[in-house]
Design brief:
87 residues, mainly alpha
Length: 87
């Protein structure tokens, strides 16, 4: 989730309660900056939380490629002689 959507989702009531537009804009900008400071994409990638960053204009082709590879994946387990695995 990007900083715009995250800040809007988390602080929706607080943003709506601020009536001064300048103060609202300053609050939203500060919350987005705080969100961006906390998110470390390299750490998330090393923890295998994210696979890659896809630009919006390339999203459709990236999803199509992943679905193409997923369709070829063998999801059948081997047939076993024993129903209960050893402990």
């Amino acid at each position: 989730m990007g900083p715009e959507a995250a800040v809007n989702a988390v602080y929706a009531n607080k943003i709506a309660s601020i009536e001064d537009l300048d103060e609202r804009g300053a609050f939203v900008a500060a919350a987005r900056a705080e969100y961006l400071a906390d998110v470390d994409l390299e750490r998330l990638a090393s923890d295998l939380v994210i696979d890659e960053i896809v630009e919006p204009e390339d999203l459709r082709s990236a999803i199509a490629t992943r679905l193409k590879y997923a369709a070829r994946r063998d999801r059948h387990f081997s047939s076993r002689h024993r129903a209960i695995p050893p402990v």
